[in-house]
């Protein structure tokens, strides 16, 4: 990089939500000049950056104009105008992750084909252009239908169990995937810098909220055997190398009941499955992302202790000015870290924040986390 | 507090330097609306707050107008207009630490008298109005002369060793203190909230840069015996209780060669002797200050590991656009955390940032810190 990260370098982040916000918290330590583009004038990052621009992430001109005087651009969301990023790259602006990777990952169909072409274990799938294709699908029921584009935070995903469900299936071009009867959802975050150093965070275990289809509970490190963990980490490293990505890549996987690991989805940015690294690991995913994109030595990913992460979702049935019931009670508990995302209004299942619970005693970390889940509620 | 800290509450911070900056990094987790007043239009906090106002901290009107629509005001520097804070308090704005405490601590003479009146162990002293008083001082040479007001970061302090030194002594009202032949400079940070909960961080040991008279090297926890640590912590708690302070109080002390502990100075705010708590302790001093002033339960102050803090001072002989020589090399080391303060220009001994080095092996933490000191230089 021609300019020093702590000096004249101007970093743009596409998206000014909670991931951008936590990235800024870390970027403060490095003196980084941060520019944010987000369509929401009340985005969580709006008051925490050198320059905030309100505008569409999908619009070519907006993204291009935002980026043209910057040195380096990164993302906190994949749904951005990639044509603009490509043009910026051609003109010498560095884009990490690279535009070609964002383009690939934006399309869940291309993502799956990439896995297949690169011998990355993943579930059987079929690409379909319209709902009609489902009537003679090559996969047998039940299966998962995912929109190829623009699914986010559990949206754009349907489970098709019976012939009757096909009526309610998505119309748009989508992907159907064999239903995986998994034992556990796991994730590995990997980082790669431009000199080719690759480093993984220890594998984590996740539990999802079935109603919202969002990670609700995450524990790190995993207690699965070393062989499984190394296999998961090797898969993540292979994907990072195959992509030649610069930056973070979150790899979500299924551990099946017979011990297979299948890659579910990947995201080329800081990820919900890595929030516990802030308190739980020597380096956080946010610091690691900065180190990767600035081509600095990667940090020490080891766990300092057991960490549990809970997403703080807007309570079902409440909409309006957020009120955090029980917040004082949970702050009185040992090893509880509150991270609010600067969102004024709550709605059902909106990600309002997360809590990290650490404890050297794993059982205690889990029981404290369950207690926090019971006590702390986002109402209105 | 009538308003929720995460909601409509408006927090003002007098001073927008590195302490304010690290306080904001933590306040982001709590959704706090932060307003900053600082005389420097390029202050480290300027781009990280809801509202930045450039103005004098010493001017009554400026401080009063800054504060009159806020709910809560805190400080990151003592040199502020206390009359304005008093008026704001009368009008219902909460000021933590309370204005009467800031007034007391602004004057090193009053501070010393407070120690004496409250049986807090401190060195013998005398207050003088002009330099002439030194010719028949009650203390014998050598002694330390400190300006009663406005000393900061090692400025406003002189050692008077011989009669001849009196010629170069400060003219202004000052304090002379018996020279303490100490074994170690130690510090304890204590926090107190409005419900009267009091909690200390473990005692730390410090080494000063003799040229700049600034903390250069700090290690936590201390290896001195439990009796000494408990005595130091009890002194800090007593001062917090005597003052009935709300917020943090840093208590700097001398441990003398015969095992006495003498209080040197106190500061009612986050302090350089607590920076290592960010990575080294369960709760950081910045989080603890927020918990105290929001009247929340105080956090867990225990050390997670051994932590060494080094101030990153501008190298002597360099002035201009800061350049951090060796930064990449130190980031490749295990357990090294960089905190830059967002200052564009360096000058000799300017506090440009700090580094925290953690390691479960204390000797390794120290040797890594010494290595960082050798490698990392702030030049221009």
Description:
Two copies of one chain form a homodimer. Chain A has helices at 18-27, 60-67, 82-90, 99-106, 108-117, 226-243, 277-280, 285-293, 327-331, 362-375; strands at 10-14, 33-38, 51-54, 72-75, 94-95, 125-128, 143-147, 157-160, 174-178, 182-192, 198-200, 204-209, 214-220, 247-256, 261-267, 306-313, 320-321, 323-325, 336-340, 345-346, 351-359, 377-379. With 380 residues, chain A is an alpha+beta fold. Chain A has three domains: 10-95, Rossmann fold, CATH 3.40.50; 124-178, Dna Ligase, domain 1, CATH 3.30.1490.20; 182-379, D-amino Acid Aminotransferase, Chain A, domain 1 (2-Layer Sandwich). In chain A, the strands form five sheets. In chain A, strands 10, 11, 12, 13, 14, 15, 16, 19 and 21 form a nine-stranded antiparallel sheet that branches. A five-stranded parallel sheet of chain A has the order 3-2-1-4-5, with helices on both faces. In chain A, strand 12 and strand 13 form a beta hairpin. The termini of chain A are far apart. The interface between A and B is large, with 38 and 39 residues. Chains A, B: Pfam families: ATP-grasp (PF02222), PurK_C (PF17769), RS_preATP-grasp-like (PF22660).
Task: Based on the model shown, name its key terms.
homodimer; 380 residues; alpha+beta; Rossmann fold; Dna Ligase, domain 1; D-amino Acid Aminotransferase, Chain A, domain 1; 3 domains; nine-stranded antiparallel beta sheet; five-stranded parallel beta sheet; ligase (chains A, B); EC 6.3.4.18 (chains A, B); ATP-grasp (chains A, B); ATP binding (chains A, B); purine biosynthesis (chains A, B)
